[in-house]
Design goal:
Elements: E1 12-14, E2 17-19, E3 34-45, E4 48-59, E5 63-67, H1 74-81, E6 89-94, E7 106-109, H2 123-132, H3 143-156, H4 171-183, E8 189-193, H5 201-218, E9 221-225, E10 238-242, E11 247-250, H6 252-255, H7 258-265, E12 270-274, E13 277-281
Parallel strand pairs: 5-9, 5-10, 7-8, 8-9
Antiparallel strand pairs: 1-2, 3-4, 3-6, 10-11, 12-13
Helix pairs in contact: 2-3, 2-4, 3-4, 4-5
Length: about 300
């Protein structure tokens, strides 16, 4: 199977209904060589079906946003691509290879969890683990390693607090360090699992810009799971909506409509647009509130 972004998810039967996704879904020129391919992929965990017959090709340099309610398999999709969870049917490919743990081309930003304030770990130590965290024992890091850490800290604007205990930093500062850890290996595919969760609006904007800049400068692919699409709406080439029984993928203008979302959810949904923001009313789109529209902050 060798789909281009222009032929993704066309006339796909999904659950009890049919999703007619546009063939011209991508909003950027096709790049030769797919970053990710999913072919009739089905996932079940502990006997429970998560999603079925998911097929799409994600091109190099594409920014794909993934939304859907809790339990729809958004994080599980990232875990499949990380080689942590096997499919029950179909196949997944990352740069033409079966997903495996520790793939050097993949950077991963996990869901944010607070660090213990007393943990004896500096910010630069966390970032350095992106290079050698898979190794056991005490690591004597050469000057080249430290220079590389310093360069990525400068890139994300975290050099000024990199020697502070990570547990005593703010949520936004910790998230910059997580991004640095994900990017230090110079990945061509960046997987982001709700990286804006629990951040104030300023920190959200900073995180989004860091990821967007990396994607532009490296022509890197981004798969961005979020419960609020508005902070990344302007960056999204396409949106993948996972609802459990059904899935759909298309450009933001085609996906975020009353007709499309009502068809996918199987219930009436209203989509309201105001300036450059979108509100989805009637369903729990993102897993926390009736979003994408809510602005979350701490």
């Amino acid at each position: 199977m060798n789909q281009t972004p222009d032929s993704i998810a066309a006339d796909r039967q999904i659950g009890a209904g049919a999703l007619h996704a546009a063939r011209d879904a991508a909003t950027h020129p096709h790049q030769p060589g797919a970053a990710v391919q999913l072919e009739d992929a089905s996932l079940a965990i502990a006997g429970r079906r998560i999603w079925t017959d998911l097929s799409l090709t994600i091109a190099r340099g594409e920014f794909l946003v993934v939304i859907g309610p809790n339990g729809a398999g958004k994080t599980s999709l990232l875990r499949v691509l990380l080689g942590l969870v096997p499919l029950v049917r179909g196949r997944a490919l990352v740069h033409g290879e079966v997903p495996r743990r520790g793939h050097p081309a993949i950077g991963y930003i996990p869901q944010q969890r607070a660090f213990d304030p007393e943990i004896p770990l500096r910010g630069r130590d966390l970032v350095g683990m992106g290079l050698d965290g898979h190794r056991w024992g005490i690591s004597v890091r050469p000057a080249a390693h430290r220079a590389r850490v310093d360069r990525i800290l400068d890139l994300v604007g975290a050099r000024g607090y990199a020697d502070a205990p990570i547990g005593r930093l703010s949520g936004g500062e910790q998230q910059r360090l997580r991004i640095a850890q994900a990017l230090i290996g110079d990945p061509s595919l960046l997987l982001c699992d709700e990286p804006l969760l629990s951040l104030d609006l300023h920190s959200q904007a900073v995180v989004v810009e860091l990821i967007a800049r990396w994607s532009r400068e490296r022509d890197a692919t981004v798969i961005f799971v979020t419960h609020d699409i508005n902070p990344v709406l302007r960056l999204a080439h396409r949106i993948l909506l996972l609802t459990g029984a059904r899935w759909g993928v298309d450009t933001p203008d085609r996906m975020l409509t009353t007709e499309t979302l009502s068809s996918l959810y199987g219930v009436p949904v209203d989509v309201v647009r105001h300036r450059d923001r979108v509100a989805v009313l009637g369903v729990d789109v993102g897993g926390h509130d009736p979003v994408p529209h809510a602005e979350h902050g701490s």
